[in-house]
């Protein structure tokens, strides 16, 4: 037998297989974690889009001293000028997306919780089954030179699958003849 013949012994081969096995296991663990986490940005972006849409919907509503159905709504300069002063929460019979009596003021959204997301016509939005939203409307003290009570802070919170939460805040000032 010649000493020039070289090769791997069984022990060297087993050590090589063990080292490669450990390395592949580590790489696959990182890959698996990355694959599981890759859906998170999609959920976050969708929750953000829902929150932005709801915040825009609320802030587009009037903010007056009177309920918009009150004849004095356009001319009232104080809550006392109204037959029906605007209060937090919807008036009796009003509902978001109702055909005949929809929400008609920023304050109507105060305390609204949506466990099923719908559009303004009440149709369930496809693909958002795992999302819910809540809206909080609070009066702000003096704000940006305006007296207390003339500004509302609207906070929209959306929770998506995996308990991913997005919260957006916006401000709505009163547009009334006194200002």
Number of strands: 4
Structural class label: alpha+beta
The low-pLDDT segments are: none
Instruction: Give me the strand/helix succession.
Output: HHEEEE
Q: Profile the largest sheet.
A: 4 strands, antiparallel
Which oligomeric form is depicted? single chain
> What's the overall average pLDDT, rounded?
84
**First and last CA, distance:** 106 Å
Global geometry: elongated
Radius of gyration: 29 Å
Work out the helix count: 2
Beta-strand proportion: 15-25%
Give short descriptive properties of this protein.
27% helix; four-stranded antiparallel sheet; 2 domains; alpha+beta; 179 residues; single chain; 2 helices
Please, could you describe this protein's structure?
The protein has 179 residues and is an alpha+beta fold. The chain has two domains: 9-38; 39-173, no CATH class. Helices cover 27% and strands 17% of the residues. The chain has helices spanning 10-37, 40-59; strands at 113-114, 132-140, 151-160, 164-173. A four-stranded antiparallel β-sheet has the order 1-2-3-4. The radius of gyration is 29 Å and the shape is elongated. The N and C termini lie far apart (106 Å).
Fold topology:
Elements: H1 10-37, H2 40-59, E1 113-114, E2 132-140, E3 151-160, E4 164-173
Antiparallel strand pairs: 1-2, 2-3, 3-4
Task: Describe, in short, the structure shown.
The protein has helices at 10-37, 40-59; strands at residues 113-114, 132-140, 151-160, 164-173.
